[in-house]
Amino acid sequence: MNNIVETFVERGFIEQVTDEGLIRDRLKKGAVTCYIGFDPTASSLHVGSLVPIMALVHMQKHGHRTIALVGGGTALIGDPSGKTEMRQILTREQVDANAGAIRLQLEKYLDFTDGRALLLNNADWLTRLNYIEFLRDIGRHFSVNRMLAAESYRMRLDTGLNFIEFNYMLLQAYDFWYLFRHHDCELQMGGNDQWGNIVAGIDLIRRLEGKPAFGITFPLITTSLGHKMGKTEKGTVWLDPKLTTPYDYYQYWVNTDDADVERFLSLFTFLPMEEIRRVGGLADARLNMAKAVLAFEATRITHGESAAQSAWKASALAFKRKPVDRDILPSSSIPREEMDPDDSAIPRIVKTRAELERGIPAYELFVEARLCASRGESRRLITQGGGYIGNQQIKSFDEKIGIDYFGASTRIFIRKGKKNYAIIEMSE
User: Fold this and answer.
1) Domain covering 348-427: architecture
2) Rounded Cα–Cα distance for residues 194 and 82 (Å)
3) Lower CB count within 10 Å: N or C terminus of the chain?
């Protein structure tokens, strides 16, 4: 079995390592305990959280013990890393509610049975600290000059860094020491914007315990076009199916830019690398099939086999896509043959026959179906030729959509551009 560092390097997870030689030597001696922190500033994690989540899953698959740390305590402060202005301060009640929701999400990815993984909340120890004792025992080990040299603080000096944020590095370093002391955690991982915080924790462990600890950071993933992962014109792509449906989640991945397919298959699926490397030589229809595999696998990992099947069927129906050839990423469980169509996953709205007999302005339907965020956006879309009923372009934003559009059917497809569909269903 490969060393986990080799797996991370092969799949593109590593940006920086505190001491790769020491980490490799330590891993040769047996399993380690590692941790990654997750910030409960919202009720759901999003696609941008998937790299650390997948890293923890790989660690577990290689026999290591993982700790998913929900930052219920540090979220009360706010991490300045990667931010040009202060984060919104949440109440304790908001943080606790978000932390509980995130715990449930992480259980979909990691096996917490028999202590193979731990779910912890740093509020359990940080909120009990005595401030004077903390300054005497922990704060004295930190150099203000070194802290200000950290990228997360340095980039904030021009716009303003307040004292409450300045404490964040101490608290995260304390987390690492606490987990080292109480759970034998030797490795912290996180996004590259956490490098300064991770190094501070390693230094604190060395000072307090006289023992080594290690750190790995991941690249902050952007698309080949420079866009931040998980951001679309519809907004954030959440892992919670109530916030982003499995169908919309599938659509996010299937619309991956050609240049990103091989990289995203490496990071966001568990398919063998020998298969993924062949994707670089695909083009046109076969590359689109690889995108379908990426979308299916990513949806299956987050939402389960059944949801992935439904999203695949609905997408195949809406976009008239062919089944995936068996020689394209054969380890995937994506359907390889024609299946009964299923439109249940496609977003829909229901209108009564009476409403449709009167006719409904097209721009209102696009807003109601959530294809557009506002009436103004909907008017612009249709005026610029981006609104369709079936394959028929809508000529005017106030064109009345009525019963004659349905023919003998009780439903019609409306489409925004080439990629976003919804169903209008007629009821009596």
Assistant:
1) Roll (3.10)
2) 9
3) C
